[in-house]
Structure formats: structure tokens, C-alpha cells
Amino acid sequence: MNFPNLIIIFLISLVFAKAEENRIPFYEDYLKESNGDGFLKEARKFLEDNPDAVEAPRLAFDYLMVAKASREIEDLNNATSKLLFNYPQSLPTMHFISSFEKESKVLTELLVAKAALGDLKSKDFAVSYCRSLIMIARIQGPKFLADSSLRIRAYLLAEKAEVEEIKKSASKALLLESEKNSGISKVVQIILNEQTPIDKLLLLSKFSGKDAEFATAYFLAQLNEEERNSDQIKIIQLKQSLFGKPKNIEKALSTIAGLPTKLGKQADVQTFLGMAHYLDGKEDLAIKTLTNVSTKSNNENMKKWGETAQSFANGIEFKENRKKLLLDALGNAFDQIGRSENNLFARIEWKNKKGEKTDAFIGISEEKKQLEIQVEIDGKPFFAYQTIQGKSRLFSSKFDSSISFNSPGIFTIPQIDIKRDIESGGFSYTFNLNFSSDQEDLFEEGSRAMNNPYLGTAKGREVLLNHLLTSRALWILPAKTVSGGTEYPLSLIDPESPDPTKVIFITGIGKNLTGIRVGNFNLTNLAIGKTNVLENLPKWPSSESEKVEKFDFPLFMKILQNILASS
Fold this sequence. Notes:
Blueprint: H1 3-21, H2 27-31, H3 36-49, H4 56-70, H5 73-86, H6 91-98, H7 105-117, H8 123-140, H9 148-161, H10 164-178, H11 185-192, H12 197-204, H13 210-221, H14 225-228, H15 231-243, H16 249-257, H17 261-264, H18 267-279, H19 283-291, H20 300-317, H21 319-339, E1 343-351, E2 357-365, E3 370-377, E4 380-388, E5 391-396, E6 401-405, E7 411-420, E8 427-436, H22 439-450, H23 453-456, H24 458-471, E9 474-476, E10 480-482, E11 485-494, E12 497-508, E13 513-518, E14 521-528, E15 544-548, H25 553-566
Parallel strand pairs: 6-15
Antiparallel strand pairs: 1-2, 1-14, 2-3, 3-4, 4-5, 5-6, 7-8, 9-11, 10-11, 11-12, 12-13, 13-14
């Protein structure tokens, strides 16, 4: 063999060696050996080392499939991020997006979650996120961006990425949202105003929920080093780490460690430190930290924080015994609901956005084909609706009159669902309100909710309660006897107040559930049994009455929407 040929063969060998070196891992080679973990490890490494490889998009999709089959949450999140943000124009990504139905809530929720997981300081991430939104909108249609939470993230990241197309579209929709009297409108107003990021952060600190949390994380990421190192901002960052999603316990601990000594020893900060240890699975250290928080202070707020810390420590120490008592009580209550007749009365009390005392009275009877809802504000009739035995009527204080319909009305059907999220190991909760002309749909939905394993089975309730107790600063207080039954109270830390939010389940002498209180929301006088439970309903409001043949559903919805908006 002459020397030139030898050189050529050597060079060809190098090419083949390099090609072999850059060969993507194929899941078939690993799964036939039942080595899914091995494939995930190699796929992750290849995509990190060779992000621009020709076959990287195909590998990212394979990576997603195996991660999903293996239920490896971290790899699943990593794979979806690679597809959406690294290879948005690739065929595998388009196939992934096309697997979702149009206007898919799951896809929307995925992108909402992805925004929080990204590097909000990085313009590159913002550009990738916006590029992905544009691509998905072309596949799914413009209604894809109709979700308010997604619009907030689209607007802020488009501002960072300087993508005017998305920023302009999202800002128009958000401006309309800001004018509504809704829970999200105040957060949107802060986002859209012309104030500095620090001013916006101070305003946002008064709000909770995923949208306020994301906006807080975004504006924190835009601060310079000097701004980030101010005590005021460090406290906001601490709360974001502990109460935002996702939580960042390591960051919370390092933030507390970096605070000036006097500030770090404050009762509220030490309570947050105990909370961080608890969420980190270090219960003994949490108890020690919390019990050392003083309840003696000239500052009333700090004194209350000390009392909250002591209560929290006590709740952790006696968690198992109290949990068993609460689960037994809930089990008895749910068993009785399942055996009861389909007649119900309940009273719900809360304060509306104007601070007015609001009471809603609800009555349901299967025997009478009846649904009745009455709402009073400061003791005066505000709204009333009834459908019973083929007829219906409607009252509104706005018109100061009733309308009687010679036809049945509709039945409001609350839909509640609790699911275990295999991606995060946590739970997802959904609540919707639907309508039907058939009362049977109402009872079927009630049965479906009660058959949910996390409500209707002892094991499911225990799994759900364990998750709630270990994933947030929630603890069980001692049960106490009250007039007519027993209260089972829980406390939840409120980052903006030393007074924790109270959650209370109330059972009667017969171990039946009679009420639930969550903060200022109070479901009371719950009674399930024979038709006489409906005798607790107030009398129909006295007013002029008009008779109409057909039930006016649009009018009913208009009045109902006004009630919800003012609540």
C-alpha cells in the first residue's frame, strides 16, 4: 500500500470514528436491556455536549418519551424545555405541539410553568420563550394566547426579549383585563404601570397567587446587584423562595444567612427559617428554631409572630396524633354524606370586595326537583333564584322585582377535581361551574366528586393530607369541643401577616360535617337529610312580580356574573 492511500484510509477512519463519536444514543439499544435510566443519562449528556447536532431534536423527543414512561420528573421537564426552547422549529417539536388539542389547557399550563422555571435574567431565554409562543400560536391559532396567566408571562418576557409583536398583542388584552373587577386585575395594573421594578415589587408583595409570584420573580431578576442586596429586597426574595412556585429552600436559607444580624433575628425571619427547615424535611431543627422565637416584644407584630412560631412548633411535634384524629373525623363525615338523602341546606358567609357582609343560602331537594340560591348583603336581599317542580323564578335588588317563569330553570353544577401530578409529585386542583337543565346531572357530579380517590377513600385522604402538611407551612391545632360538636382547626402561615390563615372543619354530635371555615370564608349550618332541611331557607324577597313563559338564561347569567365580580 503506497503512502498516499494510507493517508486517505487514515483520514476516512478518522471521519468514521468522529461520526461514531457523535452518534446519538438510541433508546431501543437501552430498553431491550431494561436500562431506561442509562438512556436518560446518555441522552441528557449528549444534548448538553452537542446541542447543535443534526439529530439533537429527534433525541430530545426520544428523551421525552422515555422520561415520561419512566416517570422521571426532572428529565421530563428537561426534555420538554429542550423541545420548546432549543428546537422550536424542528419536526419533533411540531409533532409534540400537535399532540395537544386546540386551546388545550394542559399546553397552556405547561408554558405557564415553564416561564417560572426559566432564567428570567437571561434575554436568550426570553427570546426562546417568545419564539416558542409564536410557533405554537401558528399551529394552535391565536386563541392559544387567550389565557390571562399566559398573557402576563408573554408580555413580560416579550418586554425582556424586545419582541414587539407579542408585547403589543399581550398588552392590549392585559389593559382590558386591568379594567375588570377581578382577582388578577390588580396584579395586571402593577405590571403595566410605569413605576420602577422596586416600586412594583413592593406593591406585589401584598398579593399572592401564581401570577403575582411570577411577576415578583421577574422584577427581582431585573434588579442590579446593588438593588438586589438591599434589606428590603432580600426580604421579598426570602418570601418568594418560600412561598413562590417552585420553592427554593436552599436560596431561602442562604438569604437568611446573609441578612444583617438584627434583621435576621427578628421573629418573622426566624419563623421563616423554621419553616425552611420544616420544608427541607428537618423537623427536629424546625422545632428547635421555632421554639426559640420569643413571644416577648414591644412590637405587637413581632410578638404575634413569636406566638405563631410557637404554635407551628407545637403542630409539628404532635403532627401524627392530630393527623390521625382529623383523618378519622373526615372519614366519618364523608361516609355519612355518602349515606345521606339528596336534600341539602348550607349557608356561606364572607365579605365582598367592598367589605360588606355577604350571606348565600343554598337549598337542594331531589324529591322536589328544587334548587334555590339566595344572596343577602348586610342582611338585605340582593339576589334570589329558584327552580322547583317545573317552574322557576328570579329576583334582583337591581330591578327590585321578581320574574316568575312558567318553565323550569337550570341547575348550577360545581365540578371539583383533584389529581396527582406525575410530573411534580404534587397535586393539581380544578374547579369549574357548569349548568344543566337536568337535576340528575347535579347528583351525578356530586357522586363523581365523592368517588375521587383523594376524597372518597381513607388512603387517598391520607396521601393528600400528608402532601399538604409537608409541602407548605400548614399545621394541625388541637381539636376542641364547641357547642353542638367538634372543631378540627389548622393554621397556614401568611407571609404578609403574623396571624396565620385558619382552616377549620366542624363536625356535629353525630360526626356529620356541619361547616368549613377558610380565612374569612365560612360554610356553616350544613345539613343533609330529609326535605325539612330546606325550611332553613329565608323567605322569598318581597317585591313586585312579573310573569313570563320561558326561563331567561342570559338574564340569569348576567346577574350571576355581577355577583361573582363583586365577590
